[in-house]
Amino acid sequence: MKNFMKFIPIILCSLLIAAHFGRANMFVLQIASLIIPLILIWKNKISAVIVQIFLIAGGLEWIRTLVYYARIRAENGEPWLRLAIILGVVAVLTFASTLVFRTKFMKKRYRI
User: Fold this and answer.
1) Angstrom distances, CA of residue 96 to CA of 22, 31, 52, 90, 91
2) Where are the domains of the chain?
3) 83 in Cβ contact with 73 (< 8 Å)
4) Rg (CA), the chain
5) Which residue from 20, 13, 1, 4 is spatially nearest to 95, judged by alpha carbons?
């Protein structure tokens, strides 16, 4: 159970990204986002790298979304700071979830 806790940030970020893609009607990306954490079942370096690339791309997508919606709100004269803070925190947490692979357990499991 203790080792399962190390996978929770990856799973939560994957679910958030899947929800984002679902809201944008990008169902292929939504399904891919839900399947990506299942790659970690295989205990090899490639699966860890694929998930890390996915998380970095997800963080970049959150930043892109932040800029897009903040620009629209600013142009319409609506408040955008809260949106920027929330999406910024989500982006940082998505990037930070790649650090899970630096733990001793993950390095040993995926031979990193």
Assistant:
1) 23, 23, 10, 10, 9
2) 4-110
3) yes
4) 16
5) 13
Are the C-beta atoms of 38 and 14 separated by less than 8 Å? no
* Percent of residues, the chain, with pLDDT higher than 70: 99
Joined together, the tokens standing for residue 69 give 């919606």
Backbone angles phi, psi at 16, to 5 degrees: -65, -45
Task: Compute the average pLDDT of residues 89-97.
Answer: 98
Q: H/E element holding 81?
A: helix 81-96
Confidence band for 4, pLDDT divided at 50, 70 and 90: confident
Structural contact between residues 51 and 37, judged by C-beta atoms closer than 8 angstroms: yes
